[in-house]
Amino acid sequence: MDDVPSSEEETSDIDTGSWSDDEDMPAPQALYTILSEKDIKDRQAEAIDNVWTVLSVSKTDAGILLRHFKWSVSRVNDAWFADEARVRETVGLIEWSVEGDAYDGANKLTCWICFDTLPREDMKAPVCRHYFCESCWTGYIHTAINDGPGCLTLRCPHSTCSAAVGEDMVLSLASEEDAQKYHRYLLRSYVEDNRKVKWCPAPGCEFAVELIPGSTVYDVTCKCGHQFCWNCLEEAHRPVDCDTVAKWILKNSAESENMNWILANSKPCPKCKRPIEKNQGCMHMSCTPPCKYEFCWLCLGAWSEHGERTGGFYACNRYEIAKQEGVYDEAERRREMAKNSLEKYTHYYERWATNESSRVKAKEDLIKLEKEKIEDLSNKQCQPVSQLKFVADAMAQVVECRRVLKWTYAYGYYLKVEEQGKRDFFEYLQGEAEHGLERLQECAEKDLKDFLQADGPKSNFNEFRTKLAGLTSVTRIYFQNLVRALENGLSDVDPAPSPSRSGSSKGIGSSKLTVSKSLNGSRRGSASGSASRRTGGGDEPEYWTCGRCTYGNPMAAEVCDMCQNVRGL
Amino acid sequence: MAASCNSNLPRRIIKETQRLLSEPAPGISASPSEENLRYFNVMILGPNQSPYEGGLFKLELFLPEDYPMAPPKVRFLTKIYHPNIDKLGRICLDILKDKWSPALQIRTVLLSIQALLSAPNPDDPLAENIAKHWKTNETEAVATAREWTRMYASGV
Ligand SMILES: [Zn+2]
Ligand SMILES: [Zn+2]
Ligand SMILES: [Zn+2]
Ligand SMILES: [Zn+2]
Ligand SMILES: [Zn+2]
Ligand SMILES: [Zn+2]
Ligand SMILES: [Zn+2]
User: What are the tens digits of pLDDT across the range A422-463?
Assistant: First the structure.
């Protein structure tokens, strides 16, 4: 434990996913160690060795002591050297007395459980010399083990005796099945008694995660792939705090009956009314031919009205605008005031849930990609697999961003209406991030499909590479900003000194954008790497970069299209 | 241990039963039912100098399949005003729960119940109301217990 060196386990100083540690922005990291069953057993053995050597007690007794003192060697030592007699009494470590027992000399003894009289050698007793027959012991141990982890502190069956029955005796008398259960409890006690170690909550996962003291971030990634909050054991929810998450989850269960309709996976096409199923992660929907109407899954508005090209703000994250876009006119909206709180909740819930299903979808895609598609792509486009890591990086970025974005909707729901400034800033950052993510995901899904379905190598594959890698790093930066702002409680954050954005959405992915990215991570699901740098290409700049939000504005514009910041500030 | 059913009663139960019948504990009688040798009809005499003095209390005792690894199930059939016995006759006694040991016997259990009648323990109550009564006004509670003994436990 605290004092046991853990040299054998690797200590993963994993960042929480995609936040690369830019030199200018060291991301807070969760420090933790993942323990396999073997690691736990090794630690237990090590602790027992430690106690056994220092206290000169048997290994079984060392185990009894450690279980009582929650596997802390130092606590065993402290208590033992402070008052050995008291510790012995508490845990039932009776010292062997040299005086003979009452049965000395008798060849046959009566077992006071079954009342049978048996030869002494068929009887067993702990150090207290209360003899019972083997089959009664087996029954006694069976009952205790099937009663639960209390079997780890088993005492002598004699009604007034508190002598401990240790591991060696239990295992020598227990059935095979019971012995296995006992081992299980023994293993589990190491985690369950220890406030610094918790089981991974993923179903069937047998790893435990130990948080290293000083870690301020709780998001951890288990070796099974499950990302969870070590503190509250919900799925990873950075940058939103545990309380908000708990409130939100409670709220969802309370509202779940009202929300059933939202979970339906299809919506009518706003134009032809045929049901359209959302089968891709991104919000850009295309109705099936002949309609082919392109619309936004969230607001059902025409896709052409979305994005920067129209100069409009990417609106789908914004509740206010959604209401304006919605079916209610002002008068009707007033009449519907009573429904407002549900409406508000619905807005956030729907976006929360949609992002979750997008995340799940993206994660499945990522797994499929790594399993088979990357081979296909490699063959079709005549690219070595080693050169295709950017695709998995992009998908991993999508997965992580969907997770963050999802939780920002829970955050948004609880943002106070009065704090208009914060709200605006939050929605602005969220909008930026969401917009970047939509482009990234669309590129990762739709463009990739073209290359996968192509008959042979396509000449524009390198353009695809540049575009996707560029979108990945831009999106990462947006999300870094968002996460950081939320973790600062939206207190006057000065925008991250992020690399300048050298183009509009059209510009990104064009040859003007070069991305140098050293891919150092071998970690799956994490797009971490060194900082991405984008440098303007050789052409004359067509854009000026807003100092506040990094948006690339046309040279003609005097104020930023995004945040209305005056050029030059 | 041998699997046990009525026709194949473990030796321990047979021995305990024989001894209960041949050397009954003072103030206690326990006899197995004819249909089910794991079911005992029990009578306990209210101990002297207790509010239950003069009463004869009827109980039932049942030895579950996994007896003696699991404790016997015991219940008062006679109504009794006692802080550790609820209105269904269930008894709050540690050896009937977590302090059970397979080395305890029917005899020890019944003796403990008899002792509980002599020394009610309102700090570990099963019947909240009665325990409260006991703690706030012991004289009155004891009077009620006597009254109940007279009403329900005399002249069976
Ligand atoms: Zn003993
Ligand atoms: Zn035996
Ligand atoms: Zn796991
Ligand atoms: Zn949490
Ligand atoms: Zn349509
Ligand atoms: Zn929309
Ligand atoms: Zn701006």
Answer: 888 888 889 889 989 999 999 998 888 888 888 888 888 888
- Cα A115 from Cα B18, distance rounded (Å): 12
pTM of the predicted model as reported, rounded to 2 decimal places: 0.63
Identify whether residues A303 and A345 lie together within a single domain. no
Residues A475 and A424 in one domain: yes
Tell me the per-residue pLDDT of A293-320, one tens digit each, with 9 for 90 and over. 887 776 777 777 766 543 343 445 544 4
Would B5 be classed as within a structural domain?
Answer: no
Q: Is A563 within 8 Å of A530 (Cβ atoms)? A: no
Inside any domain, residue A561? no
Residue A58 near residue A52, CB atoms below 8 Å:
yes
Q: 3-state SS string over A203-218?
A: CCCCCEEEECCCCCCC
Amino acid at A548: R
DSSP state at residue A443: I
Is the C-alpha dihedral spanning A317, A321, A325, A327 positive or negative? positive
Residue B9's closest chain A neighbor by CA? A114
CATH number of the domain residue A128 falls in:
3.30.40.10
Q: For residue A396, how many other CB atoms are within 10 A of its CB?
A: 25
Q: Count CB-CB contacts under 10 A for residue A203.
A: 7
CATH number at residue B51: 3.10.110.10
Looking at beta carbons, which residues of chain A come within 8 Å of B70?
A: 143
Q: Are residues A278 and A382 in the same domain?
A: no
Nearest to B12 among A114, A157, A158 (CB): A114
- Kindly report which listed range (A134-138, A176-180, A383-387, B13-17) carries the lowest average pLDDT score: A383-387
Chain B partners within 8 Å of A143 (Cβ): 66, 69-70
- Alpha-carbon Rg of chain A, whole angstroms? 32
> Under an 8 A CB cutoff, do B68 and A115 touch?
no
Verify that A298 and A358 share a domain, yes or no: no
What does the alpha-carbon distance between residue A506 and residue A503 come to, in Å, rounded to a whole number?
Answer: 7
Structural domain for A279, as ranges:
269-316
Q: Quick check: is B6 in a domain?
A: no
Q: What integer is the mean pLDDT of A181-193?
A: 93
Q: Which residues of B touch A129 (CB under 8 A)?
A: none
Domain count across chain B:
1
Outline where B23-137 has alpha helix (H). Answer: 106-118, 128-136
Catalytic residue among B92, B106, B113, B117: B92
Residues of chain A in Cβ contact (below 8 Å) with chain B: 112-116, 130, 132, 135-136, 139-140, 142-143, 157-159
Q: pLDDT digits over A378-428, tens only?
A: 888 888 888 888 999 999 999 999 999 999 999 998 888 777 888 888 888
Query: Helical H runs in A56-175?
Result: 59-68, 73-82, 84-91, 134-147, 167-173
The percentage of chain B sitting over the pLDDT mark of 90, rounded to a whole number, equals: 69
> Does residue A298 sit in the same domain as residue A425?
no
**pLDDT tens figures, A137-148:** 999 999 999 988
What residue of A is the nearest CA neighbor of B108?
A: A159
Among the partner residues B95, B99, B103, nearest to A113 by beta-carbon distance: B103
User: Is the Cβ–Cβ distance between A531 and A555 less than 8 Å?
Assistant: no
